[in-house]
Specification:
The chain is mainly beta. The protein contains one helix and eight strands; from the N terminus they run αββββββββ. The protein has an eight-stranded antiparallel beta sheet with strand order 1-2-3-4-5-6-7-8, covered by helices on one side. The protein starts with a helix and ends with a strand.
C-alpha cells in the first residue's frame, strides 16, 4: 500500500485478495486507510497507516478480522529511510498480547 501511494499518489486501490484502500496526501507523505484489505483469503485488515514520506516514523494501527485466533489489533512503527531499521509490533491477537521486532519493510 505504501509503495502504491508513493508511486501513484492519492486515490483508491484494491487489496491483493480483496478489500481496498484510500490514500490521502498528508504533509510529506500519505495517510492510507485500509478497508477490509486481504493479504490472505482468511484475514481481512482494517486500519490506518501514516507514512511520512522518505524520512520520519511510519505508524500503523490495524484491526484484524477473520478466525477468532487471529482477531485483534496491532500497532506498528518503524523509521523510514534508515538502513537496517527495525519495526516494532505491539497489540493483541486472539486475546493474547503480542510484542515483536522485525526488519522494517
Amino acid at each position: 500500500m505504501i509503495t502504491r501511494a508513493a508511486e501513484n499518489g492519492a486515490g483508491r486501490g484494491v487489496g491483493l485478495r480483496g478489500g481496498g484502500f484510500t490514500a490521502v496526501r498528508a504533509a510529506q507523505g500519505y495517510r492510507i486507510t485500509l478497508h477490509k484489505v486481504q493479504w490472505s483469503e482468511d484475514l481481512p485488515v482494517f486500519g490506518e497507516i501514516d507514512w511520512p514520506g522518505r524520512s520520519g516514523t511510519v505508524r500503523a494501527h490495524l484491526k484484524l478480522g477473520g478466525a477468532e485466533a487471529l482477531r485483534g489489533t496491532l500497532d506498528l512503527e518503524w523509521p523510514e529511510g534508515v538502513a537496517a531499521s527495525r519495526a516494532t509490533v505491539r497489540g493483541q491477537l486472539g486475546g493474547w498480547a503480542v510484542s515483536a521486532t522485525a526488519p522494517a519493510p
